[in-house]
């Protein structure tokens, strides 16, 4: 019986393959506006959205042909694909009436981000300026990479009287949907909704906490946050720059008091809220807040693999090794890049040898514990 399978399989293929090919060519003649595209999710952190592609707008004169992603003012907005910023009004001239918006262009497709933030934190004053709409360095002609921070969600333009949201649309000249709209250019809008759902399902909600600090972080941004909490809540925190349980509890108390999501994560919304309370802006952490370890093995064996392992656990181990004075093969301090590459492997083996551990280049519980000893 087993021997028959390849033959049966081949026969089935011969019958099915032409049908599949026919189907593909038919599909390209009438493209599906709901096709799933390969995108990263544009809004960091929690947000809500529905499929409103065909919803009427302007009293039925047009359809929405976009997805509105609702969040809070100041929520980070990221590049869904790598490409070029091809539209970014309001930098060298006043904000236009339609508000702050960004477009990323790539291969004839335009991804638009509309209603970006135009308010100073905690207000609806319209005085935020482009610095609170677009991330530093974002302007026309700049190349951005998928997942990169490009701006902040808001309510500029004709969204002033709506809850803050990102109007996200995909305009693809290679796509035409003659059934939906009469105005010719409107036939090129794809429905972002299925692609957004797919990105979320894959977990590709980029940098949900990028530039944010939380339990386990340390550094200047944490210290600034502790000082701000002390001003806002009279929290009496030590300002040691280590985001420990007391800072976490005070952060959550602050978030609860301000009606924010109580997650202990100090992101743009929480920073904006504390600026409103204290009248003093608090600098956000960089892209990569420093981790502090409590020495607990994170659970994954780290070793040189192909492709290389990457993650916060690798970064944390590298940072600690660097602190201990370990260097790469070139003699420079061990790079803390989160990739377990040849330099990490080399340092791991030498370290194991020094500590009298099994020299296998594998960071398991005992090597981890020795590193953080
Ligand atoms: Zn919209």
From TrEMBL:
Keywords: Signal. This is N-acetylmuramoyl-L-alanine amidase. CDD domains: M23_peptidase. Residues 218-274, 310-370 form the Peptidoglycan binding-like domain. It comes from Euzebya pacifica. One of its GO terms (molecular function) is metalloendopeptidase activity. Residues 63-171 form the M23ase beta-sheet core domain. Residues 1-29 form the signal peptide. InterPro entries: Cell_wall_metabolism_enzyme (IPR050570), Dup_hybrid_motif (IPR011055), M23ase_b-sheet_dom (IPR016047), Peptidoglycan-bd-like (IPR002477), PGBD-like_sf (IPR036365), PGBDSf (IPR036366).
């Amino acid at each position: 019986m087993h021997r028959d399978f390849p033959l049966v399989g081949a026969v089935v293929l011969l019958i099915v393959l032409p049908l599949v090919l026919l189907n593909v060519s038919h599909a390209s003649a009438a493209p599906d506006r709901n096709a799933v595209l390969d995108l990263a999710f544009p809004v960091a952190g929690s947000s809500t959205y529905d499929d409103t592609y065909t919803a009427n707008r302007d009293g039925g004169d047009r359809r929405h042909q976009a997805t509105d992603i609702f969040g809070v003012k100041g929520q980070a907005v990221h590049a869904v694909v790598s490409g070029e910023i091809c539209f970014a009004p309001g930098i060298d001239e006043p904000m236009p009436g339609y508000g702050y918006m960004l477009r990323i262009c790539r291969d004839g497709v335009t991804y638009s981000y509309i209603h970006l933030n135009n308010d100073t934190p905690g207000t609806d004053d319209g005085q935020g300026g482009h610095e609170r709409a677009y991330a530093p360095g974002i302007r026309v002609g700049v190349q951005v990479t998928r997942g990169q921070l490009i701006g902040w969600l808001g309510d500029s333009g004709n969204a002033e009287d709506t809850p803050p949201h990102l109007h996200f649309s995909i305009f693809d000249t290679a796509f035409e949907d003659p059934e939906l709209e009469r105005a010719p250019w409107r036939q090129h809008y794809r429905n972002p909704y299925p692609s957004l759902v797919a990105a979320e399902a894959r977990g590709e909600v980029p940098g949900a906490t990028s530039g944010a600090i939380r339990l386990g972080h340390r550094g200047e941004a944490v210290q600034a946050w502790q000082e701000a909490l002390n001003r806002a809540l009279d929290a009496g925190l030590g300002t040691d720059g280590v985001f420990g349980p007391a800072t976490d509890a005070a952060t959550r108390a602050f978030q609860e008091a301000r009606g924010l999501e109580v997650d202990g994560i100090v992101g743009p919304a929480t920073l904006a809220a504390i600026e409103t309370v204290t009248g003093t802006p608090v600098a956000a952490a960089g892209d990569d807040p420093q981790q502090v370890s409590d020495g607990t093995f994170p659970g994954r064996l780290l070793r040189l693999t192909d492709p290389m392992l990457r993650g916060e656990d690798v970064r944390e181990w590298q940072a600690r090794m660097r602190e201990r004075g370990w260097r790469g093969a070139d003699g420079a301090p061990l790079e803390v890049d989160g990739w377990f590459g040849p330099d990490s492997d080399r340092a791991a083996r030498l370290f194991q040898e020094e500590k009298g551990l099994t020299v296998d280049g594998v960071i398991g519980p005992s090597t981890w514990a020795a590193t953080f000893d």
